[in-house]
Amino acid sequence: MNDNQFITVAKTNEIAVGKGKAFEVHGQLVAVFNTGDEFLAIDDMCPHMGASLAAGHFDATDCTVTCP
Asked: If I label 13, which of 21, 35, 36, 46 is the partner at 20 to 30 A Cα–Cα?
């Protein structure tokens, strides 16, 4: 997949401000977070525990995610 492609995974009102939600994109789980100004996406799997990062704590101020 080209890095410049956009894929619609949800409507903007489906992800609350300051929260994340996981979506499957081409067989991979992606966590999408709503900062209030924009939507950011990362790999959903925590590298050290394998947990869903979408279920973790998202800090919209500094754009960090803490695994659950």
From this structure: 46
Whether residue 46 is predicted with pLDDT greater than 70 in this model: the reply is yes
Spatial distance between the Cα atoms of 24 and 63, rounded to a whole number of angstroms: 21
Alpha-carbon Rg for the chain, nearest whole angstrom, is 12
Identify the H or E element spanning 34: strand 28-34
Supply the pLDDT for residue 63.
87
Tokens encoding 66: 């803490």
- Per the CB < 8 A criterion, the answer to whether 5 and 43 are in contact is no
Q: Phi and psi for 13 in degrees, rounded to 5?
A: -80, 0
Do 44 and 52 form a contact (C-beta atoms < 8 A)?
Answer: yes
**pLDDT tens-digit series, residues 1-31:** 556 678 899 999 999 999 999 999 999 999 9
